[in-house]
Structures
1.
Amino acid sequence: MTIETLNRINAMLTGTGQRMDKLCPECDGEGQIEYERTIGGIDNGGSPWQEYEPYLATCETCGGWGRIDIDPFDDDDDLS
Ligand SMILES: [Zn+2]
C-alpha cells in the first residue's frame, strides 16, 4: 500500500483530510508529565527524613511530541 493510498483513506475517513493525530490525553499536549519521586536521607541530627519531590519527565504516551497518532482502523473511541 502506498502513502498516497493511505492519505486517500485518511481523507475519506475524516471527511476533511485533517491530520490523523490528536492531542495527547496523558500530558494535554505538553509532552511532559509531572511525576513524584521519593527522596530521603539522614539529617544532621541523625533523624531519617523522607518526602516527595515532583519532577518532570517525558510523556511516555506521546514520547514528548504532545500529540499521538490516530489509528484509522481502531474505532474503540467511537464505541461506548
Ligand atoms: Zn503525552
2.
Amino acid sequence: MPTALEEAWDSVETQGALDELISLAQKHRAQEHPEPKIYDDHIRKHLHGSIFVGHINTDLDSVAGAIGAAALFDGIPAISEENLNGEILFALKECNIEKPTFVEHIPGAKDDAFFCLVDHSEVKQMCKILQEDKNRGNRIRGVIDHHALAESLATSKPLFMDLRPWGSMSTIVTCLYMQHKKYLPPQIAKLLLMAVLSDTLNLTSVTTTDADRQVVVLLSSYGKVNDPDEMARLQFQAKTDWIVNLGAYEMVRGDQKDFSAGGWKCGIAVLEVTTVEPVLAVAESIIMELRILKKEKGENKKTGERDMRAELDFAFLFIVDIVGNTSKMIISGGRELALAKAAFPGCKLTEAQPGITAPGSTIKADETLMHLGEGMVSRKAQFAPAFLNAMSGNFTCHKKPNSERSLEELQKEAEEDMNELLYREAQKGFSHNSVSVARTSQLLNGSLGGASMALSKKRASMSGESSPQGSPKK
Ligand SMILES: [Mn+2]
C-alpha cells in the first residue's frame, strides 16, 4: 500500500512546479522580505495585530489555522473555547506549540480589538464575544475559510477575504505563506499538516482536492514528517480515545451544527473515530441526549426564555469510521427515521445497541441505526446536502415543522411529549463543571424512568390505554 505521501506525490500533476515552489520558499527562509509588494504589504497592514480565531465546537483546523495565519500576518492566535479536543491537544504537544490564549482572555478582545475569522463565517459559529457584539461588523477585518460563505456575515467596512473550495483551511494558510514568501517554521508546518490530515481524513474524504494533496507533500517536507499516514493514525487514535471518554452528553454536542430548509431545522453531530464500537456501546444514552438537545436549542441563553419554535425538528449523530471509510447514523426518533429514509434511501437499518428500546411510537428498536454506504464520511459534502435536499423538497412526516406552528400549539403538545419530559427531568439532574457535563447513569435511568412513568400515567388517565410506546428499559 502506498503511503498518503506517495499517493499525493503521484497525484500531483505539476511536480516540477512543486519543486520550484519548495526551492523558492527555501531561498526566502529567515530572510527579510526582499521585494515588498503592494498586495502583500497592504494585507499585512490590514491584518496586523488582529485576533485570529476559529469556530466554536472547535477543531484542529481552526486552531492550527489561527496559529499559522496569526504567525504569518503578525496577529494574535486565539482559541474560541477553553477546552480542546484530544486531537488538538495531541497535535500541539507533538509540534511543541503552546495552547493559544482563550479569546476572552486577550486584552481588548471584548472591546475594540480587530478580528480575522478562520475556518468559519457564520455568526452562530463565531466565538461568544463576537456573537454578542452588535458592533462586530466594525471589528471583523478578515475571513480565511473553506466553507460556504454565510448569509449572516455582514461587515461595515471592506475586509480581506480568502475563501477557497479546498479540503482544509490550513491548506489555504499554507498557500498564503508561499504567496507572501514568508518563512514557515517547521513546527507550524507540522501543525498545519496535521490539520489538513484531520480535515481531509488523511486525504480520503470526498472534500479532498489536489491543493490539499500538494500541500501535504510540501508540509511533510517542511515539518520533517516522514510518514504522514502514521501521523494521521496517531492523531485519529488520540481523538478516538478522547471521544470514548467523553460520554454521551459531549458526544452529541461537541462537533454539532444546525441546518435549515423548507421550514425544518436539523442538527447534525459528527464523531470521527477509528473504532465505532465504544460509541455504539452508549447508543441508548446518545439517543436520549439527542432528544434533549432538540429541546435545548429553543433556549435563549441570554434571557433564559424558551422559544419552542426554534427547537430542532431532527437531531442526528453520525459516527464516522475513519479506518473503514464509512459511517453509521444514530436515529433518535420517528421524525428522524422518516427524514433519514428520505435522505438516504435504501440504507440498511439495525438496532443501535443490543436490547435498545424504541425511542417513540413511530420507530422500532431495529431502526435506530442506519448504515451508510462506503465513502460516506463528510457532513459538509454529503450528510448536510442530503438532508437539505430532502427537507427543501416535499418532505412530510407525522409532524409539522416547529417553526411553522403556533407557540400555543407547541406548548400544549409539550405536555404530552416525551422529549419535553426528558428535557425537564434532565435539567434537574446533572452536574456541570467547566470540563464536562456529567449525567450519572443512575440519574439518566431514573429520569427516563420517571418521565416515562409520568407520561404513561397521564396517557392512561386520558385515554384508558396503559402501554405507552417509547418506555425505557428497566
Ligand atoms: Mn476546516
